[in-house]
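Figure 3 (text version): structure tokens given as input.
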């Protein structure tokens, strides 16, 4: 009789007792089926299973372990675990088939595929489940993967247009803000992947064309996206992945070689999606590719002096502005000028999908570096306060032409000259009161919207602010690329000089002279008219470019067809030449055979003639009674004649 593992102590006892407590008693259908494919390496598998048993005690789990014909002590160890559904393969069938077999026996609403060389850190399954329970459009969610030393292995995956995959953030600092907000991604790794069970079965499970392994996870995510479901990276779910314990790390040998074997299969299957929705690799495309998936509305950068605090009406107003853009479907980046992390607001916004930028120990980036990284990925900028307009607007104008909205302070809270210059320099203005809006409309200083400060618990209305941004982003509304104020600041920025403290170019004071202000406004309207003309010319150029691109596409298509026809003709000619050569060789063989047959026929005729002559001679001898030996011999001249015939 075998002894219970609990009596032997160590990890085996911990795992046995944990399985008995969690899986030993059936309590209805589980919410999540954890599927762990295993091939040897029991010591690693044991630690993985212990982490599963200990995580998320409030979630009803079932544990399915697929033993792919292990030859070590794995089968015996698994047989001792109470309540664990062990699937033993009679032969090694590989990762893809093993996962599919485990999934076919699962009863959970969700399937959590987990590599056996992983460790769940804390409650790793619950954040994935909460994410999918609160949003029916999410079909697949994946974890943040770390190396054993704590460095980042993957914060969501990128797939380039040629089918190569990219582990975003690999070997970087795991605490950097760009890796810690929820977002839609190209794919998530199958090392820790949660998928809706009904969706997995509708998609036909993992595609067996990728057996034994590699690219099956990216293929599943692409299939879900093609079905209209989202694939989301959830940074609150953290998993350590030892990577390579089973498959190795050399892409030229063992199972790992199927990475290169399966990539062309993946590229061929998803060619249209890769060419239509994905970009080719470049350093400048990494950040954009990591953020743009699933984006259907313009991305917005909000810049403020600091993160909002709920203790003040304007703090609640800023909070509503940021969350309002996110809830309206925009991808939002929030850049506090002080780069301070303000919990719990920062965490709440990251959970809502807002990228909040902040400083961490060891990160030397300042606001200017963050701005340079972010600008290529956004479509509009909202800047809070005239002081930040003075700092940020020249840097933005120097790099790109996105519309800029000035979120103005209330009258009297900042220098009136700086405030007026900011209104003139921006493409639109957001104010807190209708009186301020009327003043700007009276001076015809461009689009303006009202978003009042939040008082008590009542959130301010976001509707007008959203309408203002939508209007600026409309192709029918020209964006002023530069005003005189902005042009002066951009020139100073590009020359490397610090912006002056005042907008009139003096170092002291912040007041603009009335005449100077009037001149700036007049110049502003002239430049607005010129911007209208530029926008119209740009539209005409875009139409011409679109038409030219269409013609080029048609020419390329015609060239491809001509090339294909010529290639097919060359192949047909080569095939015909080969057939002709085969027929000539066969004819030559038949001729040789015919010649050989003719020689044999002549010899037979000669022998027949000799036999006939001999028979005739013997017949004459018998009739005449002649016994002369010479009568039995064919005369030489007759023999020669027969031979010649």
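Below: residues designed for each position.
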């Amino acid at each position: 009789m075998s002894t219970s593992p609990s009596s032997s102590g160590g990890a085996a006892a911990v795992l046995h007792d944990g399985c008995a407590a969690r899986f030993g008693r059936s309590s209805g259908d589980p919410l999540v089926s954890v599927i762990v494919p295993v091939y040897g390496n029991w010591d690693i598998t044991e630690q993985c299973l212990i982490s599963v048993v200990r995580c998320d005690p409030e979630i009803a789990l079932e544990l399915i372990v697929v033993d792919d014909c292990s030859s070590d002590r794995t089968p015996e160890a698994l047989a001792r675990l109470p309540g664990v559904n062990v699937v033993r393969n009679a032969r090694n069938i590989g990762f893809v088939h093993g996962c599919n077999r485990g999934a076919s026996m699962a009863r959970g609403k969700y399937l959590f595929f987990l590599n056996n060389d992983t460790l769940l850190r804390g409650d790793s399954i619950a954040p994935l489940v909460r994410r999918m329970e609160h949003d029916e459009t999410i079909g697949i969610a994946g974890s943040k993967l770390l190396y054993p030393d704590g460095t980042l292995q993957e914060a969501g995956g990128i797939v380039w247009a040629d089918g190569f995959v990219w582990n975003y953030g690999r070997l970087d600092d795991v605490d950097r803000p760009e890796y810690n907000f929820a977002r839609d991604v190209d794919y998530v790794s199958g090392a820790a992947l949660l998928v809706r069970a009904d969706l997995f079965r509708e998609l036909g499970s993992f595609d067996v064309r990728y057996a034994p392994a590699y690219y099956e996870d990216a293929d599943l995510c692409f299939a879900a996206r093609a079905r209209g479901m989202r694939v989301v990276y959830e940074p609150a779910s953290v998993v350590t992945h030892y990577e390579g314990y089973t498959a190795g790390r050399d892409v030229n040998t063992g199972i790992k070689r199927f990475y290169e074997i399966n990539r062309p299969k993946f590229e061929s299957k998803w060619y249209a999606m890769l060419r239509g929705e994905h970009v080719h690799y470049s350093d400048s495309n990494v950040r954009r590719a990591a953020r743009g998936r699933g984006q259907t509305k313009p991305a917005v950068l909000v810049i403020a002096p600091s993160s909002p605090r709920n203790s003040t009406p304007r703090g609640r107003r800023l909070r509503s502005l940021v969350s309002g853009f996110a809830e309206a479907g925009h991808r939002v980046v929030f850049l506090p000028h002080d780069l301070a992390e303000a919990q719990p607001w920062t965490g709440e916004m990251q959970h809502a999908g807002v990228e909040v930028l902040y400083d961490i120990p060891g990160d030397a980036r300042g606001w200017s570096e963050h701005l340079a990284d972010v600008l290529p990925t956004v479509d509009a900028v909202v800047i809070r306060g005239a002081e930040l307009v003075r700092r940020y607007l020249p840097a933005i104008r120097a790099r790109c032409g996105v519309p800029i909205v000035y979120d103005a302070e209330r009258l009297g809270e900042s220098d009136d000259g700086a405030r007026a210059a900011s209104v003139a320099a921006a493409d639109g203005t957001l104010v807190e009161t209708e009186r301020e809006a009327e003043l700007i409309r009276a001076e015809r200083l461009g689009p303006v919207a009202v978003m009042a400060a939040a008082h008590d618990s009542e959130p301010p209305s976001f509707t007008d602010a959203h309408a203002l941004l939508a209007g600026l982003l409309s192709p029918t509304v020209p964006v002023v690329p530069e005003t005189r104020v902005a042009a002066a600041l951009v020139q100073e920025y590009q020359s490397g000089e610090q912006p002056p403290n005042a907008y009139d170019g003096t170092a002291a004071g912040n007041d603009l002279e009335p005449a100077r202000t009037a001149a700036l406004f007049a110049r502003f309207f002239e430049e607005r008219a010129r911007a209208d003309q530029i926008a119209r010319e740009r539209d005409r150029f875009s139409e011409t470019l679109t038409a030219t691109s269409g013609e080029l596409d048609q020419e390329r298509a015609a060239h491809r067809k001509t090339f294909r026809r010529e290639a097919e003709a060359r192949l047909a000619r080569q095939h015909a030449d080969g057939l002709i050569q085969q027929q000539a060789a066969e004819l030559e063989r038949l001729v040789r055979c015919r010649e050989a047959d003719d020689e044999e026929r002549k010899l037979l005729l000669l022998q027949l003639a000799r036999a006939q002559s001999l028979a005739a001679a013997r017949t004459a001898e018998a009739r005449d009674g002649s016994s002369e030996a010479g009568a039995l011999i064919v005369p030489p001249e007759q023999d020669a004649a027969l031979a010649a015939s």
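The chain has 20 helices and 19 strands.
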